[in-house]
Design goal:
CATH class of chain B: Alpha Beta
Strand content of chain B: 15-25%
Number of strands of chain A: 5
Structural class of chain A: alpha/beta
Structural class of chain B: alpha+beta
Helix content of chain A: 25-40%
Distance between the termini of chain A: 26 Å
GO molecular function, one term (chain A): anti-sigma factor antagonist activity
Shape of chain A: globular
Radius of gyration of chain A: 12 Å
Number of helices of chain A: 4
Strand content of chain A: 25-35%
CATH superfamily of chain B: Histidine kinase-like ATPase, C-terminal domain
Distance between the termini of chain B: 33 Å
Order of helices and strands of chain B: EHHEEHEE
Shape of chain B: globular
Number of strands of chain B: 5
Protein name (chain A): Anti-sigma factor antagonist
Family (chain A): Belongs to the anti-sigma-factor antagonist family.
Strand order of the largest sheet of chain A: 1-2-3-4-5
Largest sheet of chain B: 5 strands, antiparallel
CATH superfamily of chain A: STAS domain
Largest interface: A-B, 24 and 27 residues
CATH class of chain A: Alpha Beta
Pfam families (chain A): STAS (PF01740)
Oligomer: heterodimer
CATH topology of chain B: Heat Shock Protein 90
InterPro entries (chain A): Anti-sigma_ant, STAS_dom, STAS_dom_sf
CATH architecture of chain B: 2-Layer Sandwich
Order of helices and strands of chain A: EEHEHEHEH
Number of domains of chain B: 1
Number of domains of chain A: 1
Chain lengths: 110, 157
C-alpha cells in the first residue's frame, strides 16, 4: 500500500493505493491517530486506486469516526470501487460515512 | 473458461504467510479469467477466516498451522481451511448489529469479518473433527448468477 496525504483548505485527503490489508493497517492507523491528535478533524479517504480492504481496514475508519464525530469532525470516503462500496453497504458503514463517487464532490461537501 | 478442476494447497504457519494464499487466488483468477469483484470477495473471505483463526484458535498451541486448499471446478470456487487449534466454532460469534447506528450497537466493530464471509459466500460451513477445526466456503465464479449470501448462519453444522 502507498499512502499520500493532501491538505486542502477544508479537509485532509488520505489517498491509498493497492492493498489495505493485514500488513498495512497499522501504518494507516498510526497515520490517522497522528492526524487526529494533530487537530485534523475532517478526513477524506480517497479509494480511487485502492484494490483491497478487509474488516481491519474498515475498523480504522470507524475508529476515526468514533473519535471525530462526537466533536463535530467528519469522515468521508470517495471513489471506492463497486465491490468495495458493497462491503461498506453490507456492514452498514455507508450510513456512517459520507460516500462519494468523486473527490471533488466529497471535498465540496465538507 | 476451462471446467477442469484447478487446486492449490498450502500450509500457513503465521499471518504473514497469507500473501502466499493471495498469490494462489491471483493465479487461479488469471488462469480462469475470474472477475476482479469475485477475486475480491474470495480473497476477503479467506483473509477474514485466516485472521480469526490466528487471532483466536491458537492459545497454547505449540505449532499452529492452517492447511488451506483452494479449488475451482466447473465454475465454482471452494476452499477448505483446516487448523489444529482449540475448538473454535465461528458460528458462535455474535453478528454485528449492522442495521443499527454505530452509537446504538452494543458491539460496535466486532464480528464483522465472519459476518462478511457469510454475506459474500454462497455457503459457509464449520465443523470440528478429530482435534481439528474445518471451515468450508463456496461461491460461484460467475457473479451474475450467484445466489448471494450464505444466509443467516443456518448453513453451519
Amino acid at each position: 500500500m502507498a499512502m499520500t496525504t493532501i491538505e486542502l483548505p477544508n479537509c485532509t485527503v488520505l489517498a491509498m493505493s493497492n492493498r489495505l490489508d493485514g500488513s498495512h493497517t497499522q501504518e494507516l492507523e498510526a497515520k490517522v491517530e497522528e492526524l487526529i491528535s494533530g487537530g485534523y478533524s475532517r478526513l477524506l479517504f480517497d479509494f480511487q486506486e485502492l484494490d483491497y480492504i478487509n474488516s481491519a481496514g474498515l475498523r480504522i475508519l470507524v475508529m476515526a469516526y468514533q473519535q471525530l464525530h462526537p466533536n463535530g469532525g467528519k469522515v468521508a470516503v470517495c471513489c471506492a470501487r463497486d465491490y468495495i462500496q458493497e462491503v461498506f453497504e453490507i456492514s452498514g458503514y455507508d450510513q456512517l460515512f459520507g460516500m462519494y463517487t468523486s473527490r471533488d464532490d466529497a471535498v465540496s461537501d465538507f | 473458461m476451462s471446467n477442469e478442476r484447478l487446486c492449490y494447497r498450502m500450509i500457513l504457519h503465521s499471518r504473514d504467510e497469507f500473501s502466499n494464499l493471495v498469490s494462489a487466488i491471483d493465479s487461479i483468477a488469471e488462469q480462469r479469467d475470474v472477475a476482479p469483484s469475485v477475486v475480491f470477495k474470495i480473497t476477503l473471505a479467506l483473509d477474514e477466516l485466516v485472521s480469526n483463526i490466528f487471532d483466536y484458535a491458537f492459545p497454547g498451541i505449540p505449532e499452529p498451522q492452517i492447511d488451506v486448499v483452494v479449488c475451482v471446478d466447473n465454475g465454482v470456487f471452494f476452499a477448505k481451511i483446516i487448523d489444529n487449534g482449540i475448538p473454535f466454532d465461528m458460528s458462535k460469534l455474535q453478528e454485528p448489529e449492522v442495521d443499527k447506528p454505530l452509537e446504538e450497537r452494543k458491539r460496535a466493530v466486532g464480528g464483522l469479518g465472519v459476518f462478511l464471509v457469510r454475506r459474500l459466500m454462497d455457503s459457509f460451513t464449520y465443523y470440528r473433527y478429530a482435534g481439528r477445526n474445518y471451515a468450508m466456503i463456496c461461491t460461484k465464479l460467475d457473479s451474475e448468477n450467484s445466489e448471494k449470501g450464505a444466509g443467516d448462519g443456518n448453513d453451519y453444522h
